[in-house]
Amino acid sequence: MADIVGSGDFQYRIVADWGRLPDGWSFKEVAAVAVDHNDNVYCFNRGEHPMMVFDRDGNFLRSWGEGQYPRAHGAHMAPDESLYLTDDGAHCVRKCRLDGRVLLEIGIPGKPAAFMSGEPFHRCTHTALSPSGEIYVSDGYGNARVHKFSADAQHLFSWGEPGAAPGQFNLPHGVWIDRRGRVLVADRENDRVQVFDQQGKLLQVWPVELIGPAFFYVDPDDIVYVPEHNGGFISILTLDGERLARWGDGPVMRSTHGIWGDSQGNIYAVQPGSWTPRARRIVKYERQ
Predict the structure, then answer these.
(1) DSSP code at position 162
(2) HEC profile for 13-33?
(3) Coil/strand/helix, residue 236
(4) pLDDT tens, 31-83?
(5) SS3 track for 164-227
(6) Other Cβ atoms within 10 Å of 162 Cβ, number
(7) Which of 19, 23, 76, 224 has its CA 20 to 30 A from that of 268?
(8) Which residues of 28-44 are buried (b: 16+ CB within 10 A; e: fewer)?
(9) Can you tell me the distance from the alpha carbon of 156 to that of 113, in angstroms, rounded to the nearest whole number?
(10) Rounded to 5 degrees, what are φ and ψ at 284?
């Protein structure tokens, strides 16, 4: 890839070899990333050290979660800086403090619901919060559902079923609640984003072409960042799905999975896949 990517108002310099680990450590399928108010970067990893924390310059600060997360998948940083971690190997969601202390757990670790039963969870994928604190969980690998919980983790209802028609899902992989209160769902294997109200009513299917949208990050200016897992792209969009910029390099960026931004407008993206030459890494895109 070129040193500068993107276009128009959204151009970024690629920071080479970001993230310095202790001797003998390595990134092993970093699945998700989130950033706190101090621009410390939390990398949720499928290795011996599930959560690796760095400063914005890539200096290693600490790790936590050893032995607790069999297969890291999704991360969401809440406004109060609690961290919601979705583990599709344990079939559960944990709300944690930034030091790793578990505050809340949804699901029974190691006990999945029946495959495609519609019940939470079978290999859940991601978590988002409404402004009033309700919790939404996409449940995609062994279900085709979005589940809504109260702030204290009481299951309220679920929606979705397998298929490709509007309102149906083929791997609901990422979820986000936007400032309008709408639920954005990355319907990955249907190559689309579907938009719902908080009761699960379909409002819109974004018309933009996306190849395997994985997750979302929406910045304070309501700009949406979407990694296209199956296509090897990152797209920058409006809340109505209008594309503002896109870049990628096909197989080199294949498996771009998690994404988040910091207070300076920089983007961090992670690539967990082991089948591409530059995978298993974190990429920092520095805003120009």
Answers:
(1) B
(2) EEECCCCECCCCCCCCCEEEE
(3) strand
(4) 999 999 999 999 999 989 999 999 999 999 999 999 999 999 999 999 999 99
(5) CCCCCECCEEEEEECCCCCEEEEEHHHCEEEEECCCCCEEEECCCCCCCECCCEECCCCCEEEE
(6) 13
(7) 23
(8) ebbbbbbbbeeebbbbb
(9) 17
(10) -100, 130
